Amino acid sequence: MKAIMVMFDSLNRHMLEPYGCRWTHTPNFERLAQHAVTFDNCWVGSMPCMPARRELHTGRYNFLHRSWGPLEPFDDSMPQALREAGVHTHLVSDHYHYWEDGGATYHQRYTTWDCVRGQEGDGWKALVGRDAVPGGCLNVCGEPQDNWVGQDFVNRAFMPTPRDQPQFQTFDRGLEFLRDNHAQDNWFLQLETFDPHEPFFAQPPYAEEYPDSYTGPLCDWPDYRPVSKSDSPELIRHLRSEYARVLSMCDENLGRVLDAMDEYDLWKDTMLIVNTDHGFLLAEHGQWAKCHCPFYAEVAHTPLFVWDPRGQKRGTRSQQLVQTIDLPATLLEFFGQPLFADMQGRPLRGVMERDEPIHEGALFGLFGGQVCCTDGEWVYMRSPGRENAPRYEYTLMPTRHGGRRAFMSNEVLRTARLVEPLPFSKGVPVLRVESRGAVSQAAYPTMLFCMRADPGQEQPVQDEAQERRMTALLKEMMRRSDAPAEQYKRLGLD
Questions:
Q1: How many CA atoms lie within 13 A of 328 on its CB side?
Q2: More confident residue, 142 or 263
Q3: Buried b (16+ CB within 10 A) or exposed e, 64-81
Q4: What's the CA angle centered on 17, arms 15 and 21, to 5 degrees?
Q5: Is the sign of the CA dihedral 233, 237, 238, 240 positive or negative?
Q6: What is the 3-state secondary structure (H, E, C) of 219-262?
């Protein structure tokens, strides 16, 4: 058995032709949809990047217990379990957070791995004492320049053509793996690119593919904030076009994988999963990006395509509720391995072959922010009280997202207390640390939406009966996820 996962970051389903978009050019995504099952009701779980990847290893939510961080010593890992069962697991990625303090423990779970450098503000190339940022540049959307943005332009200086960009390099190395190993058995390739995550750096010919009327300073990196009065309609259209340009590059490279599937006749015995960690807001709902605001469908309702050579289901669509946590379960089942005892995800085989439901509800959210749930039709976004307290993180790996030094601060670590094991920590005690600071997403009101009647989530619903029902579902899902007691308290659910 063989399997390939092609994972994009910040891939918005609303911008793909198989999901109804008519102004972007994504012929290879359309080609994929004709050869796979397209899932119409797939949702995120733990947000954002590294929490989602922790789910890809463990198959369970983690955002109720901690924020961005590494795999924990007690975590189960799908790639490691496959490796230990004799399946060669290989990671090729330019997602540089894997190699930072707040990631760090993921790539070693694979048999082999390949790191491609240069995305975003990755500390890769050096131009000492020289400013690589173009004059008048608006990145990040008018915010003051910092070393992160400057480093990004230093990196770009070493990418004279699209073939030199990390995305192409990542797919080149993934295709190299397929060239060298397609005739072998028992392997899993995770081919993962940071694109189309911001900044939306696209060179010719992609830059000419979506012309727009914007004539201002260079701007291809929207900030995480509400849309402001200074964001002109031309700038908004421009940033959407910039995203679409990078998306076209993603589509081209996806096509190279599909070509390899054809060339090596892999469709007969190789599972193919094409997925993402989350989407991205491009001024919809008056917001840019994610995490600082509610997880609207542009972020939380994600694309997913799966080809399973056993069932041979192609060109079909599924309306069943599925999530990121189901992907590691699907791969374990495909390779004939048992699911982890603590795994919340379920294999997708029955969904694809027999249209079997596997979830009555799905949780998603950000640590310290809203806790959301959906039953596939209704979406409930529950906000905490004004205090948003108490909040504790549970970890044995006290690092987080934060650039060059991503350790939890000494001030936070002074609050650390060793507490009883979590239900899923294999009997291992954990550190409980106070979570401090405001979480801007938590300041938004609780909202209820009916996706069937209002797929754009334009009008929150005021329906006491539905809110009671969704609140009950939320509490039950939290209970099944071993949510700490303080989570109920901060959400007013105790």
A1: 26
A2: 263
A3: bbbbbbbbbebbbbbbbb
A4: 50
A5: positive
A6: CCCCCCCECCCCCCHHHHHHHHHHHHHHHHHHHHHHHHHHHHHH
The secondary element (H helix, E strand) that includes residue 471 is helix 464-480
User: What single letter denotes the amino acid at residue 466?
Assistant: Q
Q: Which two tokens stand for residue 483?
A: 């949510």
The torsion defined by the Cα of 136, 142, 145 and 151, in degrees rounded to 10, comes to -80
Edge-first strand order for the sheet with 322-323 is 301-302, 42-43, 322-323
Is residue 412 within 8 Å of residue 433, measured between CB atoms? yes
Q: What are the tens digits of pLDDT across the range 191-250?
A: 999 999 999 999 999 988 999 999 999 999 999 999 999 999 999 999 999 999 999 999
Question: Which 3-state string (H, E, C) describes 400-423?
Answer: CCCCCCCECCHHHHCCCEEECCCC
**Residue 423 CA to its chain's centroid (Å):** 26
> In the structure encoding, which two tokens stand for residue 227, read together?
């849309």
Q: Whole-angstrom Cα distance, residue 89 to residue 75?
A: 18
Say which residue the tokens 């439901």 belong to: 357
Burial class (CB in 10 A: 0-12, 13-18, 19+), 184: exposed
**Cα–Cα distance, 292 to 440 (Å, whole number):** 5
- Helix count (H) and strand count (E) of the chain? 13, 21
